[in-house]
Amino acid sequence: AQSVTQPDIHITVSEGASLELRCNYSYGATPYLFWYVQSPGQGLQLLLKYFSGDTLVQGIKGFEAEFKRSQSSFNLRKPSVHWSDAAEYFCAGYAGGTSYGKLTFGQGTILTVHP
Amino acid sequence: GAVVSQHPSRVICKSGTSVKIECRSLDFQATTMFWYRQFPKQSLMLMATSNEGSKATYEQGVEKDKFLINHASLTLSTLTVTSAHPEDSSFYICSARQEGLSYEQYFGPGTRLTVT
After folding, report:
1. Mean pLDDT confidence for B70-79
2. What pLDDT is stored for residue B99 in this prediction?
3. Disulfide engineering: A47 pairs with which of A18, A35, A75, B96, CB 3.0-4.6 Å?
4. Is the distance from CB of B17 to CB of B105 less than 8 angstroms?
5. Residues of chain A positioned with their CB less than 8 A from the CB of B109
6. A71: distance to nearest CA of chain B, Å?
7. Which of B107, B111, B112, B114 to mutate to test the interface with A (most CBs of A within 10 A)?
8. Torsion on CA atoms B23, A94, A7, B48, rounded to nearest 10
9. Could you tell me which chain B residue has the CA closest to the CA of A99?
10. Is B85 helix (H, G, I), strand (E, B) or coil?
């Protein structure tokens, strides 16, 4: 079955440190992948997306993600974390065909930022 | 950018009553809207896909008679939780897909439903 997995439930980093949030996908066809951020009690904000082309994708708020087909991964990175980045992050994706338009979400990773 | 609103942002209702949640695409037309449910500390679970002018498609295990979805226009979809019970308490989030940009969904801010 098509799926998206985020292995880390909770990550803690110090402000100013680098960040990498992991996401693995399981799709038969080329996936369309997204990273969203959710603050407590809020909806989801799109950070970045990958459809095709350049495998290194730049997003908002200084985030980037790299699509690696060989590793079935789409990890989110930020070189220097700010306290305001503390939130929950969701990786999501879908392939075309019968799953067209239906996003599958990972379990989410809660990011805590220490001052 | 594309903006999706939801109303109300939070609602408290008594057990047995019905509550309606609205999802609006403010600056674009959305042929398709999606309704998700999110339990505390969990991921989003797709409940149904709402297409303008046609019946919604529900995911397996979602009671269509309990969660009524109407998508009467290209900018409005509603979710009505009928005969609500405490176990229906949850965070409901809608998203809208912009016509012509098939792979992107824009999410609303969510509605916190508490059934007492």
Report:
1. 92
2. 67
3. A35
4. no
5. 42-43
6. 23
7. B107
8. 40
9. B103
10. coil
Ramachandran angles phi, psi of A83, nearest 5°: -55, -30
Do B32 and A41 lie within an 8 Å CB cutoff?
no
pLDDT band for A101, please (50, 70, 90 cuts).
low
pLDDT beyond 70 at B114: yes
Predicted confidence (pLDDT) per residue in A41-93, tens digit: 888 999 999 988 889 999 999 999 999 989 999 999 999 999 999 999 999 99
Q: What are the φ/ψ torsions at residue A28 (nearest 5 degrees)?
A: -75, -40
